[in-house]
Amino acid sequence: MDGPPRPAPPPPPAPRHPPSAPPPVRDTSDVLRQIMAITDQSLDEAQARKHALNSHRMKPALFSVLCEIKEKTAMSICGTQQEDPPDAQLLRLDNMLLAEGMSRPKKRGQGAVAVAGTVTPGGCPNDNSIEHCDYRAKLSQIQQIYHSELEKYEQACHEFTTHVTNLLREQSRMRPVSSKEIEHMVGVIHGKFSAIQMQLKQSTCEAVMTLRSRFLDARRKRRNFSKQATEVLNEYFYSHLSNPYPSEETKEELARKGGITVSQVSNWFGNKRIRYKKNMGKFQEEATIYTGKMAMDTTEAEGPGSQASRLSSPSPDSQGPFLLTSAGDMVLALRTLAFLQPQPQVSRMQGPHCHFLQGSSPLVHSTPEPFPTLPIIGKFCQEWSTT
DNA sequence: AAATATGATTGTTG
DNA sequence: CAACAATCATATTT
Questions:
Q1: A219 CA, B8 C1': Å apart
Q2: Taking the CB of the first residue and of the last residue of chain A, which one, N or C, has fewer CB atoms within 10 A?
Q3: What is residue A252's predicted lDDT score, i.e. its pLDDT?
Q4: C-alpha A121, offset from chain centre
């Protein structure tokens, strides 16, 4: 057995386990560095042992010994099959990202179905296009970074997994390595990488949330409507002063004409009604202007910029064509109504819309208007108080 | 800079 | 849920 004197005594007792155990990893770069280190080390070791042992006569014996040892320790491996479930949080993050529109186009989501749904239509349809553009640009920027990072991680994970798998397969010639062990190893690696991914997802979520909150804040920032918009709105308001409650349809139309959203129209009417009611004195001038303009526009050919007089008046608008037969009458009647209506001449009328221009507003009385068309009021109030 | 105008939000109500 | 009322926060005017 010890015939030829070998000049080179194989130095296999390499320091296989220099430190006892690697310290708990925290940083991603640390993880990566350790991974790389382990890789090189393992590779060298494997190569050395491969050559050293493969040609050794004692290899079969060693193999069987290792088998025995393994059988004794196998149970402990099986026993330590605990699966910590951070899935909940990961899933939550996934869903969150998905909801923010960070749908993954390429990656088959690990468990998340590719819900390529558009953003919920209930929130904000095609609202403000200016700030919305900015918002979406930034969002897609985040998305891009997120995807590229994710891809990097996945690629690294895949590479490393392949590497380790090959290594283990090679080692399986020297020592017994079951496929299950390889699987386990792969699982461990995936776990590590998914932890990194989770960090990525979390920071992405944070970024998105920050962006979103900033966007919402920006929405709170007020910007005056365009002249066109205010004109359209005021025209409708003052030409329907008696019942300034545009229907949903009309709101849409007004929104379209003014280049604003329906909810903005609603806000505007809400503000306008209440502010008009609060003190009408301030709005007299405006009222005259718009009602006058209305009359002009309706009687004459429409000017180049204003075609806002053809707003679809909802059919139940009883007093409109019913009471006001001509444009001149309309102006008169409107102004009359605007100032006389609050006076409780007509005994308490009750109706869904009767709150407008009722009670309060002492200013009304302080601005006497010589309009003796009282009978109209009675009729008028009857008209829309009963609807 | 103070005052006012104005669009949006919030909380309440029917 | 729409309307109201109060309020916020900014824009514009003075």
A1: 8
A2: N
A3: 95
A4: 11
* Å between CA of A218 and C1' of C14: 28
Coil vs helix vs strand at A22: coil
Q: Which nucleotide is nearest to A264 (CA to C1')?
A: B7
A336 alpha carbon, distance to own chain's centre: 50
> CA–CA distance from A310 to each of A7, A29, A151 (Å)?
107, 67, 56
Between the CA atoms of A162, A164, A165 and A170, what dihedral angle is there, to the nearest 10 degrees? 120
Nucleotides of C under 7 A from a protein CB: 2-7, 9-12
Count other Cβ atoms within 10 Å, centred on residue A135.
18
* C-beta neighbour count of A181 within 10 angstroms: 15
Nucleotide C6: closest residue by CA–C1': A274
Question: What nucleotides of chain B have any atom within 7 angstroms of a protein Cβ?
Answer: 5-9
CA closest to C1' of C10 belongs to A222
- Provide, in whole angstroms, the distance separating residue A332's CA from nucleotide C6's C1': 34
Residue type, A102: M
What the block records as the tokens of A360 is 């309060």
Instruction: Name residue A283's amino acid.
Output: F
Q: Does the pLDDT at position A44 exceed 80? A: no
Q: What's the mean pLDDT in A265-291? A: 92
